[in-house]
Amino acid sequence: MVHRVAQCRARLGDLDGAFDALRSALELGFRDLDVLVSDPHLAALRQDERWPLAPLAPGRAGDLELFAREVKRRAFRHTSVDAEVELLRPGVDRLSDAEFLVGLSRIVAALGDGHARVDPPADRADLHLAVPLRFEHFTDGVFVTAAAPEQADLLGAEVLAFDGVELDEVLARVDRIVGRDNAYGALAGVTRKLPRTTLLHALGVARHDDRVTLWLAAGTEVTVPARPVSKGESDARPCPPGWSFLLAPPLPLYLRNAGAPYWYTDQPDDDLLYVQINSVTDDPAEPFAAFVAGLFADLARRAPRRLVIDLRWNEGGNTFLTVPFLHRLVAYTGEIFVVIGRHTLSAAQNLSTMIANHTPALFVGEPTGSSPNFVGETAPFELPHSRFQVNVSDLYWQTSWPMDHRTWLPPDLYTPPTFAAYARKEDPALDAIRALSPGIICE
Question: Between the chain's N and C termini, which has fewer beta carbons within 10 Å?
Fold first, then answer.
């Protein structure tokens, strides 16, 4: 709206008023600077010495200038990163692209923003190198749970070190470049980055950017070559297409359709209906509202004693889509259980918080990866020289009470993931729910 005021003032020839409105728009966090640079209504302002978006210096110096300005301007918690940028500036031209990426990532990781990150462009395959392994961090260690066919012999291996750097030190170094709302969300982010040899090399962990030697608990060392990995491949759960998975079918419910946006199944032997929501999105084949309508129609027909809502893999989406689900859930009279964990983030965190505040649901699993009230939004800007995409949140989600300063939503029943249970195809969370006596949840 303030941008429109600037346009109108400029067209009326009131340049002073137009500049006042433009400055207000920028101070209020106007996102799309490209619009201002190309807006024909602001042409007269761009010729004026008061134009606030001066040309950037060439190369990485310009990237640093834009990075510092936009992080300060956009971040919900008004934070200057000038001092950190100045520490990076003197040797910036001597850094590799991966080291520059890591340097910027360290800065945004300190913002206390689980959505803050710096990503390389998709066409820079050299910055997306990763070993074709899926690592999972359990309470009893870090293990390989999925692998490309040529590395299938590593399935189930426990990893103790990367290129001689002990695992705890590796985790600590990677932790410095991961944005987080809390320690559980950071753990999820760190584990996701463990295969990325480009990052490990820039962090001083891996000796090379295209391979890494894993030291295994079995007493062996294995050198694994890296290759470019796509976002779809790195995010696929529990196993990317074409890879080998540790567990043979049938899989436990929580892994069976972990790649589907949402699904449910009746478990009559346990007198429960299990619904897993893995993404707060609209599936073109069945929009979320239609899925919700079908789910609650089935609940009314089958009348199970317990409804289990599994959000442990749900890293978010569009919070506004959750409204029809919540409206129906608050009127539901059966017992409600919600499974949460370190990957329960963003819109899924909002959904969990609203369920906790408006229903008598019992929560099971791990603490969530985000907070009942948190800063979070996806609106990246691009650095012109490196083409890195930088995301800093400018939106505060106060989904809980104003005095709710908890860093996560805790479970009522803590059932941390262990590799021992995983390998046996057990689900400690669902097993704990099944073991509870009827009527344990009270209004």
Answer: C
